[in-house]
Design brief:
By secondary structure, this protein is an alpha+beta fold. The protein contains twelve helices and 22 strands.
Length: 403
């Protein structure tokens, strides 16, 4: 399978969650792709590995995928909640067994409600903006939407914890592919060898040769920096990012043994004064009690446009926290107080913030979505071999969209 055909195959399969994006301008024949390096073992990287090694078409392609991650190991307990809609349908196309495992690890998502503080004095603590039943709305849309998103009478939508999704993706990889997932591998250089591309890492090791290197290493992608500049600085650069002055606080309440089992999930949005929140329940893995999650988005009180206020210290230091490995205990009391101050209806959101086991905080940054260099780069001297991007490395998502 030649380069353009391979990339078309990947693009058709990788809509999971982030809508992984691959792009190559191929003006001449490239070598047959048989060995691929995937940089990053997050949701996108593991989904790529499944598409290449665990799909009905993988035997035809005969591509060997190797996955490298800069972290020391997985942390399946980290992260907030994720909504899978079209991505769940895509998983089914990749591998029905994989789809079944993810479905069992999550909770069916059936309802989305949108509410705000009451417009007038009312006995109700909120006013209703929107009530959306997913199945009803999909059927109203009809056509391809209904065909793709309702399968065997079941809506292809679920709510799942990020760690549970990542754990399921990892545990369902074919054994040989799972053995090729390596940790502690921070990419520092991409070279052209006699037989392909060579990846060098900060521990002094190297791997290859590869026929393609795919960067699925997130917002601060080292692979993207290589495409833009031809080199990689230590850990990659946050090139062209601007702090927005918007912050997001997350609260996660892990499921307890005494909790009642939930058979489905609904997400509820609440709008207050200059603040927005969301609460929901998420599957935490097959056989495990579900978790509750809430987030609050608000303006950084220490930020005034592009300037920090003289009498305050901005909380920008937490950055975007793409790995969700942060544990900020002090966020809890601050989050609940902001919920009260902004008059966000304190129904689901407040109790989760008060009883949460874990908290996260991040700053929202503006990323330039355009690049004159695109999402791919032909490596000089490599006989038309390419480095390409997928997922957040290609198109960074605003923090709140990852919940």
């Amino acid at each position: 399978m030649k380069s353009a055909a391979t990339l078309h195959f990947l693009l058709s399969l990788l809509a999971l969650k982030y809508g992984a994006s691959l792009s190559v301008s191929n003006s001449k024949q490239s070598p047959q792709i048989e060995k691929v390096a995937i940089i990053g073992s997050g949701i996108c990287g593991l989904s790529l590995a499944h598409a290449l090694q665990n799909s009905k078409d993988s035997a035809k392609c005969n591509i060997e995928a190797h996955v490298f991650d800069s972290r020391k190991s997985f942390n399946f307990g980290a992260g907030a909640g994720i909504q899978l809609t079209g991505g769940l349908a895509t998983l089914r196309k990749i591998n029905p067994d994989l789809h079944r495992a993810v479905t069992n690890a999550g909770l069916p998502l059936k309802q989305i409600r949108s509410r705000c503080k009451p417009w007038f004095k009312s006995e109700k603590p909120f006013a209703t903006l929107l009530e959306m039943n997913l199945e009803e709305n999909i059927k109203i849309a009809g056509g391809a939407a209904e065909d793709e998103l309702i399968v065997d009478g079941k809506v292809q939508a679920c709510a799942i914890m990020r760690g549970a999704l990542q754990e399921t993706l990892m545990n369902t990889l074919p054994e040989k592919c799972a053995e090729r997932v390596q940790f502690g591998k921070l990419l520092t250089k991409i070279d052209s060898g006699s037989d392909g591309l060579i990846c060098q890492f900060n521990d002094g090791t190297q791997a290859g040769p590869f026929d393609m290197v795919i960067g699925s290493d997130g917002i601060n992608s080292a692979v993207k920096e290589y495409i833009n500049t031809g080199s990689i600085s230590q850990g990659g650069k946050k090139e062209g990012t601007i702090y927005s002055g918007i912050r997001v606080q997350y609260a996660i309440q892990d499921g307890k043994s005494e909790d009642e089992d939930a058979d489905s999930s609904e997400l509820v949005q609440y709008f207050g004064d200059a603040a927005y929140s969301l609460a929901g329940i998420y599957g935490a893995g097959e056989g495990k009690k579900p978790s509750k999650g809430a987030f609050l988005i608000f303006k950084d009180p220490a930020w005034n446009g592009p300037f920090k206020k003289k009498d305050a210290v901005a909380a920008e230091k937490t950055n975007e926290n793409a790995d969700w490995n942060q544990d900020v205990e002090s966020v809890g009391s601050l989050m609940y107080q902001r919920i009260k101050d902004s008059e966000v209806p304190d129904i689901e959101v407040g109790p989760i913030a008060q009883n949460a086991d874990r908290f996260f905080e991040l700053g929202v940054y503006f990323h330039n979505p355009l690049s004159l260099r695109g999402w791919s780069k032909e490596v000089q001297g490599s006989d038309s071999r390419y480095v390409v991007l997928a997922g957040d490395a290609a198109h960074a998502m605003v923090g709140i969209m990852r919940f």
